[in-house]
Amino acid sequence: MAESLVVRGRLVLGSSVVDDGVVVAHGGRVAFAGAVGDALEAGHGPALDGVPPAPGTFVLPGLVDLHNHGGGGASFPDVTSADEAMAGVLEHRAHGTTTLLASLVSAQPEVLLRRAAVLAELAEAGEIEGLHAEGPFLSYRRRGAHNPADLQEGSVELVRDLAAAARGYLRTMTVAPEVPGVTGPGGVAEALVEAGVLPSLGHTDGSTEQAEALIEQVTAALRAASGGPAGRRTPGPMTATHLFNGMRPLHHRAPGPIAACLAAASRGDMVVELVGDGVHLDPATVRSVFDMVGADQVVLVTDAMAAAGVADGHYELGPMSVVVHDGVARIATPQAAPGAPEEEGPIAGGTAHLIDVVRHAVRGGVPLVDAVRSATAVPARVLGLAGEVGTLEPGARADVLVTDADLRPVRVLRHGVDVGGAAVDEVDADVAGA
After folding, report:
1. Residues 325/344, Cβ–Cβ less than 8 Å
2. Taking the model in full, what pTM does it have?
3. Tens digits of per-residue pLDDT, 352-362?
């Protein structure tokens, strides 16, 4: 009979930290997670023999990233083989992200279909949870790093083709509510929910009313879908793609989509993404959103691109050229004058790992248990995987991240197996959230 796996340290659970806690796993599943004393009473004493206390470490559930374009030099929107994409998956996995959506960017339909087919291979193999399509039904004015030539009006046909190419693994899609064909009967939002894909509001210059209309439509459709066939996984609620970034700014006379998203999150109809890497948002903004809507309506994401975990330099993000300087990724723009800095374009994704985002949130004043929950249990719930990943409750997949006292990874387990490669970064990971 296989031996139990035991991990001991300061255990971060859903609402508390157990100073001397332990996780006991067997067969790739969590058998127990709690205080050492409770583990002894539950009969796990033999498994604890020889496992000393580890007060200098934190033990977290494996992290769940809903918005990730790559890392380790690999760009998910540009890969032509599953092996190529695995470099990005393994880069983030080695830093504790054990569940991941591979994100695409706006591209021509035939390119999106090819990339979806490649990434679906990884989903079928269990290496990623699925795909996130960021675009192409986005605002020209708030396109950020998306190629303007690839933006288009909403197309139900493309939604269906993309879902088919992804072989059922298209999990989320970012859409702008003001783009024609997105909201309303027979539109993209309706087609997404019918296909089991979660719409995410983002890259929008729309009004509050336009955002509210999309949120109302999707919320009603998701509630109706939850009463569907038994056994069908029901994701939700809908999300806001990297709140604040790629959106019309909040103004007291023109509140735009941000006000609608915060209101929806406060009543439980939306979960808002925050790229809390120290670059995309001020730490006070991150802390304030947690205070306003609560950790259960916030999901921390990386929006990572190929440069995550590797050196500064030039990279590709779909058809767009990106320059990374001091860990900050921006669209490469023509220099305004000889010797002018090249890195003045829009932010083009992040270079952080998700544990770095958690650490930035905590340093910015977000309670540890809240930051961890928003990078584990909340995104798992959005994907319809509550109780399966992003938690250490008995029966969950034995995905475990062990960090030092400064929340830097030292060990990662996935399905109860060491993934290897986890180590304190050789460079200062606080530089621009890298």
Report:
1. no
2. 0.93
3. 999 999 999 99
